[in-house]
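Blackboard transcription, Thursday session:
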Amino acid sequence: MNRIEGRDKVTGRARYAYEYPADGVAYAYAVQSGVARGRIASVDALGVLAMPGVLAVLSCAEPPALSADASPELALFQTRDVAYRGQIVAGIVAETLEAARAAERELRISYEAEPHDVRLRPDHPGLYAPDKVNPNFPTDTEKGDVNAGLAAAAVSIDATYATPTQHNNPMEPHAAMAVWDAGGALTVYDSTQGASADRDMIAAALGLAPERVRVVSPHVGGGFGSKGTTRPHAILAALAARAAGRPVKVALTRQQMFDVTGYRTPTIQRLRLGADPEGRLTALVHDVIEQSSTLVEFAEQTATPSRVMYAAPALRTTHRLVRLDVPTPSWMRAPGECPGMFALESAMDELAIAAGLDPVELRVRNEPDTEPESGLPFSSRNLVGCLREGARRFGWDHRDPRPGLRQEGRWLIGTGMAASTYPARRRPSQATAATADGGFVVRIAAADIGTGARTALTRIAAQALDTSADRVRVELGDSALPTASLAGGSMGTSSWGSAVVKACEAMLKDGHSGRADTTEDVKGDTGFARHAFGAQFAEVWVDPATGEVRVPRLLGVFAVGRVIDETLARSQLIGGMTMGLGMALMEETEMDEEAGGFLNRDLAQYHVAACADVQDIDAMWIDEEDGHLNPMGAKGIGEIGIVGTAAAVANAVYHATGRRIRDLPITPAKILD
Amino acid sequence: MGDVTVRVNGTPHSLDVDSRMSLLDLLRERLGLTGTKKGCDHGQCGACTVLIDGRRAVSCLALAVAQDGADVTTVEGLAADGALHPLQAAFIERDAFQCGYCTPGQLCSAAGMLGEAGPSVVTEDLTADPPLSAAEIRERMSGNLCRCGAYVNIVAAIGDVAAAGGAADMATAVTGTAR
Ligand code: FES
Ligand code: FES
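(Written on the board underneath:)
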């Protein structure tokens, strides 16, 4: 079975948020702050309102009614304070997009600017320990005596790694169309990773009861976390539609997305590893520094993989945050694990070299019996299986560990590897199943952001109903359907699938229809450490004259429970690895310290992997049975693919050149430096 | 404002368009042809790729008023009603998309690319028309970003169509130009 919506997507029929027809639709354009910190002194909209086609101007000059409960990023035009450059400070509503954009250039906003502070640095006086890290992990953990463990080590590593600001950049810009009906109920066609949560956040911001808001979102052009929380464009659309008395569409520009849709915080990570002469860890310390905005505390859980990966008798992890005059960071594919594992897996490579051990063997020697930090048993853990299978398929065994030895023409050649991990969790969801037209219909407010959720849930339902997939129709992407959790945290399929199976079982019992709510089931997900694992192997070619790095081969082997759809799974894993390749070599958002905002806010300057950057990327998995997860026995696969890719590439660059690059991305300048 | 007449997927349209409007917005907002996507509006992503007079072009950088007399093919017009263009079928078979937002641009770009003659920067022998190897496809398709990371499957899908032979014929059928 191919993707169910495949035909709609290749023929252009699949509609995304901005593409719904509506009579009398008007267009809103977001106006952004021109200073990084300060106050809006005045907004002069008179001239703009006289321009042809302009219908309304929204700003703090006349704050539109919003709930006091609106989250600070969604409380549009409620304050004169500016928290970061690029914050939305006004909205222009016009008959056409062209008219709205022309008006934006004429809108006069004057600011009382204040000095800003936008640079993350390890000695920042504002660093503090947040109460918890995303979503709900302890900020710091400590087990055993790390000082003694480090002192007793025969081999040790003490190194600092840095990852830059990165932007999700889904191909579909965040967009919404808002339509109010005569009774004051609101429909929002939004690009969101979860219609139910989006509905609730929009309703809370506007002070409406959730049942007065409907979010429709059957097709979403990628999100990678940036559409996991409601973004201000949706609120702007609703306010603009209210002001204009007409349906209003808003799409953020690519540039605006950099400022108001979240990003991966830059991190500075110090790793201290100690090991005995056989390479067994005596201590592991992972200290993280990262940033958030002054508006919202978002503390990425960067050190959490170090709580999971290796058997260190002494283990300490810490997170420190500083609040800067910057946009608010948020989720980007595998928050926590992705940057954290770059540091940990680079450090493990350095430790292997220092100990004279093969890096695969080093990891095998540090395989824990239970989850190192918590002491919980693993529901399943097949990291060693992935390492062995990956090494075999990649041809790792004949590797000469000495760096800088292999040359072909102008290229230095090297290989490297790293491990991957990501939690396997689920969240409460509801679903219904019913007989319909000689088949079955399953309803759940799940989201298909490109994962293939529609197809995966169809398979899951067909199996639960013991029928063929073509007799099952899955409806999703609409908050009017039974409430469901987000497409995020690699929890979509596990969460929704659990509800779908349960609803199908209820239907089979009833004969006609069934309804399920997994709230109680999910409460029982205790007692085990549940994680997916993997191993990634990279071959790189480095031109020492130009600094160019090519990656002709990337292989990932994963242990992700039962794979529900092999085609979709491979696409997800390869997609994650492809984004990981971009992270390794090119992705970086620069902060303009003088002006106090992001500098390279478009796709010509923020480079993501293009077709020619990707050569042979392959992903596979080993058989894994796990009865402690969910009825499908499946672990999430949306994020683990990006975890470890950058470290595997960096480790291969070291092997090729003898140069250890500890701050991403690995640009030609750093190779030549 | 200005009057233009454009043929889109074979149908002529005469419109009075805002002189600031792009062809992309004309297609999406005036003609309701939303298959063509806006990813950046700056010619940097390829999501808006269409065929203008048989050549692939980013429609966000084409002013609508400048298209008078142009013959435009969008993803909706790649194949006749109900049928699939071989590229569309190959994209489905190879799972060459995830979110699908870059897909119409990839398809139009590939359709145009199959009809393009001559070497590229990765071609070894600059005197001959190169066979469409994976390396050539990757190079020639690099104007179309895919953030979902479906490149491996996109290249395989285009390779299938090219290998099925008649790539140039198919491109001709779509674009009206000969290789
Ligand atoms: S929208 Fe035209 S190239 Fe991106
Ligand atoms: S399929 Fe999502 S961007 Fe290409």
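Lecturer's comment: Helices of chain B lie at 23-30, 86-93, 103-114, 134-140, 151-163, 167-175.
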